[in-house]
Amino acid sequence: MKSVPAILIGGTKSGSGKTIITLGIMKAFMMRGLVVQPYKCGPDFIDPSLHGWITGRTSYNLDIIMMGKPACRDLVARTSYDADIIVVEGVMGLFDGGEASGAELAKELGLSVVLIVDGGAKAQSAAAELLGFEAFDQEIDIAGVIFNKVSSAGHRVLIETAVTTHCTSPILGFFGKDDRFTIESRHLGLRMGHERPLTEENLTILAERIEESFKLDALISLSQRIDTDSPRPSAIHKRTVRLGVALDEAFCFYYRQNLELLQAAGIELVYFSPLHDTRLPPNLNGIYCGGGYPEIYAVQLAENGTMRSDIRSFHRRGGWLYAECGGFMYLCAYLLDATGISHEMCNIFPFTTAMRPRLQALGYRRITLMDDCLLGKKATTCAGHEFHYSELLKLDQKPADGALEDIYQTENRGGGYRIDGALASYVHIHFCSHPAIAETMAIKLAETPTANNAST
């Protein structure tokens, strides 16, 4: 067992600049030769992809509501054993989200907080803002503060004088606005890591700027250290079970822990692309379609008729399908894009999903299964998160195959639907909320013959 310095980079608000500063700090540490283990507080899929791009390591979600505190602690201990430093990116403002906030995660795991304060269009008021964060919860260890969007040397002096006079948190650095470090956004957030949203040159410049401008040595020395643990050999069940996992630009939202739990249950994950592959991989027992951006790639998905036909045939032959959010949209009959154009999808569920300009749903969901299904037995409970701009419109027609059933009971929104072996919902379920989900899926898949013995 060893101890590793661990920080959580939090902001005073959403849009304070914590993502780009987090990426720059990670890159600067790596250019020093350090092994950086990244994590993301909350249910986000996009920021972990950016962390992974920078560090070359899997960035795991740490979500107290969906995973529980023990699972968060265990995950960090198991996955950071070979790291030199742990960097966790917070979510929204430091205290936003209650139990799901970066502040609660920092207290639970013993993380030191590096607070990002947006210094734009303010001077002495930046010190007043910091003073409020220092006083709000004194159990939080604020190791230091970084002021972003500082426009000039004079602006810096005004902030620095006020902070050193009124606040106790050490200043770790100042950062100015630079368009070279801007990552484009779209409706669900920033562009993802596989899209390489910054050039390698600008990424290096960002890291060099941070190395010159921030007190990184002080940041490390002021950080609390947490204990890590050597990886424990997992008892992987040996089963001949193949699960097709849709993975490409359109389907890229998966909790990494979900995939690892499925593998530990003895499931072979077989990745395929509904965008680029024309046929399903052979000899599958089931298909897992995660979320992503089917609305952006609706034309290409609709044009890939052989893939959609394979998936419909797989369902008709008794294959298991599990889909979340964007994957659910793909399994519906039609997708209506933001311009009002309708695109044919897989036509398993009798719905049209229609993109809207405003957010349609956002929040955690606590789910109770209303019947035995692929995820578990009746009355099993689990947790997930819902975030989408599309609206579900029921068609005035019967499903092409089977009968439509409601399968989730929730205390708010987030319904789930089943037609024979197909189960789908807008909710991204985190399997750590009920780890037996993976084992149940493995058993169900193993009991069912492959539904596509060959790609023909």
Unreliable residue runs: none
CATH topology name of the largest domain, in short, is Rossmann fold
- Any idea what the CATH architecture of the largest domain is? 3-Layer(aba) Sandwich
Q: How many structural domains?
A: 2
Give the radius of gyration. Answer: 23 Å
Shape: globular
CATH class of the largest domain: Alpha Beta
**Individual helix count:** 14
Largest sheet: 8 strands, mixed
Share of helical residues: 25-40%
Q: Would you tell me the structural class of the helices and strands?
A: alpha/beta
Content of β-strand: 25-35%
CA-CA gap between termini: 52 Å
Total DSSP E strands: 27
CATH homologous superfamily identity of the largest domain:
P-loop containing nucleotide triphosphate hydrolases
Mean pLDDT over the full residue set = 94
Written description of the protein model:
With 456 residues, this protein is α/β, with parallel strands linked by helices. It folds into 2 domains: 2-228, Rossmann fold; 241-447, Rossmann fold (3-Layer(aba) Sandwich), CATH 3.40.50. The chain is 31% helix and 29% strand. The strands form 6 sheets. Strands 1, 2, 3, 4, 5, 6, 7 and 10 form an 8-stranded mixed sheet that branches. Helix 7 (153-166) links the parallel strand 6 (142-148) and strand 7. Helix 1 (18-31) crosses helix 8 and helix 6 (124-136) packs parallel to helix 7 (153-166). The chain is globular, with a radius of gyration of 23 Å. The model has no long low-confidence stretch (mean pLDDT 94).
